[in-house]
Write a structure and sequence with these properties.
- The protein has 4 domains: about 130 residues, Response regulator (Rossmann fold, 3-Layer(aba) Sandwich); about 180 residues, Rossmann fold (3-Layer(aba) Sandwich); about 80 residues, Helicase, Ruva Protein, domain 3 (Orthogonal Bundle); about 80 residues, Orthogonal Bundle (Arc Repressor Mutant, subunit A), CATH 1.10.10.
- It is about 40% helix and about 15% strand.
- It contains 20 helices and 16 strands.
- The strands form 5 sheets. A 5-stranded parallel sheet has the order 2-1-3-6-7, with helices on both faces. Strands 9-10-13-8-14 form a 5-stranded parallel sheet. A two-stranded antiparallel ribbon has the order 4-5.
- The radius of gyration is 28 Å and the shape is elongated.
- It starts with 6 loop residues before the first strand and ends in a 17-residue tail after the last helix.
């Protein structure tokens, strides 16, 4: 016996609109009830359970927000969609922050109306009408352009748990992040992930996507700072054949590629102001216009953005639009830097070493308490990303069964001086209060040559340890095969029985 289709409650004081919404949903195969006031809606909610409640913001005897708040207080399972007048962005943001699943802007586009309701039904555990399920369900292609991670494969709770498990750690801060992800995953509210570089912001986006009802759709990840400004509009919104030189065919943008899924906008703070305006409109209107097209295309995506910048300060400085900031920052997830959760270091090191072992195919030296102490002595300003690089370097340079961490290993770009050198002495210059270093006779006279020699020594040791297997060596050092070939050629490292001449190194 088939499960009953989802039931929808529509609340709107305008009879014509109420009828239109009812007919649209009945045509989709849902069971529909309607109300014209807050009190009528309360009566219906007391009498039965619904899967989704669609309510206008303003009603003759109150506000749709009242219904939303009452549903939450009673811990009711209904998903609430709020309809608000055109241009009332503040109302929409407030509704999302109060727990609404999604919002619609009046006048409501029928196609968008169907998509949002279908998404809410799926998230509530309701069942789409059988005859219209394929039509109403969002596209699941995941084959868009860009540097996305979408694969079009259906996820399950195991995938969600696996995505959460990649956020390694047992600290209170990490537990709070995971709890917040689980709590907000099934909402359509935009999420802003804030944290320093290397803290794992993309892992949070992946966990949000995998834990949501959109997990079977594509997750498209976009680095907003890596796209040339003149290509931004085409990359985000797509382009039609012939719209510009070289456009030999229609191509989708990031929004189209993420249809039915999640669009992750990494480093959103690097987006130019002109593109911020266009992005805001796309988010508000839920539609995009490809370059060269005269028609708007409806898009159904959830927006997750991330930044290492303080966007509030960027707004004050005039470098980021305030209205876009409020629209993106409906729900915030802050990831603490690694220095504030050092109790997670053992678990992080174990997980990273396991990954390094899988990538290299080699056994990993034991992580001793002494090695952990040495790791903990590093500032780790680059957070988890720096920790991973540190472990890659330690594995490459270890020649025994025990992982050796160099206490003086460089942790940032400023630490390129020889480890054995003493800190330079200082003296007062002719200008009072200024301090400058004395010239140390032990400093290298040719810094580049000294750095090249250090790099060469490390590469030679690593190559010898792997039997001059370039692929394995590159993995252990955390660089690509192309990069290691380039370095071998540049540093003139001779490999025994070398079948790959240095001349083929890519420059």
């Amino acid at each position: 016996m088939n499960a009953p289709t989802a039931s929808i409650l529509v609340v709107d004081d305008e009879p014509d609109l109420r009828t239109l919404y009812e007919l649209t949903l009945l045509r989709e195969g849902y069971r529909v009830a309607t109300a014209g006031t807050v009190q009528e809606a309360r009566t219906l909610l007391q009498a039965q359970r619904f899967d989704v409640v669609v309510s206008d913001m303003r009603l003759p005897d109150g506000f749709g927000m009242e219904l939303l708040q009452e549903l939450q207080l009673q811990q009711r399972p209904e998903r609430c969609i709020v309809m608000t007048a055109y241009g009332s962005a503040e109302n929409a943001v407030e509704a999302l922050r109060s727990g609404a699943f999604d919002y619609l802007t009046k006048p409501v586009d029928p196609k968008q109306f169907r998509l949002v309701v279908a998404s809410a039904v799926q998230g509530s555990g309701g069942m789409l009408a059988t005859k219209n399920a394929a039509k109403a369900a969002p596209a699941r292609n995941g084959n868009g352009n860009g540097n996305g991670n979408g694969n079009g494969k259906a996820d399950c709770p195991d995938n969600a748990n696996a995505a959460l498990a990649r956020l390694v750690g047992t600290s209170e801060a990490i537990r709070h992040v995971k709890q917040r992800i689980v709590k907000i995953a099934h909402s359509m509210a935009p999420v802003l992930v804030r944290g320093e570089s290397g803290t794992g912001k993309e892992l949070v986006a992946q966990a949000l996507h995998a834990s949501s009802q959109r997990a079977s759709g594509a997750l498209i990840a976009v680095n907003c700072g890596a796209i040339p400004e003149n290509l931004l509009e085409a990359e985000f919104f797509g382009a039609r054949k012939g719209s510009y030189t070289g456009a030999t065919q229609d191509r989708p943008g990031y929004f189209q590629a993420a249809q039915g899924g999640t669009l992750f906008l990494d480093e959103i703070g690097d987006l130019p102001l002109a593109m911020q305006t266009k992005l805001l409109r796309a988010i508000q209107e839920r539609s995009v216009r490809p370059i060269g097209s005269t028609q708007e295309e409806s898009v159904d995506v959830r927006i997750v953005s991330a930044t290492h910048r303080d966007l509030a300060e960027e707004v004050q400085a005039g470098r980021f639009r305030q209205d876009l900031y409020y629209r993106l920052n409906v729900i915030e997830i802050a990831i603490p830097p690694l220095r504030e959760r050092r109790e997670d270091l053992p678990a992080l090191c174990a997980a990273l070493l396991q990954r390094i072992s899988q990538e290299s195919g080699l056994p990993i030296p034991a992580l001793t308490p002494a090695a952990l102490d040495a790791i903990a002595s590093h500032p780790l300003k680059g957070n988890v990303r720096e920790l991973e690089n540190l472990l890659h370097r330690a594995v490459a340079l270890s020649d025994g069964k025990t992982l050796h961490i160099e206490a003086t290993a460089p942790t940032n770009a400023a630490a390129n001086a020889p480890a054995q050198l003493e800190p330079p002495l200082t003296t007062t210059t002719a200008t009072e209060g200024e301090v400058c270093p004395l010239i140390d006779a032990n400093l290298p006279h040719d810094l580049q040559a000294w750095l090249d020699q250090q790099e060469r020594d490390i590469l030679v040791r690593a190559l010898h340890a792997t039997g001059f297997n370039r692929t394995v060596t590159a993995a252990r050092l955390g660089i690509s095969l192309r990069q290691i070939r380039y370095r071998i050629a540049r540093l003139n490292i001779a490999a025994p029985h070398d079948s790959e001449p240095h001349a083929d190194a890519e420059h």
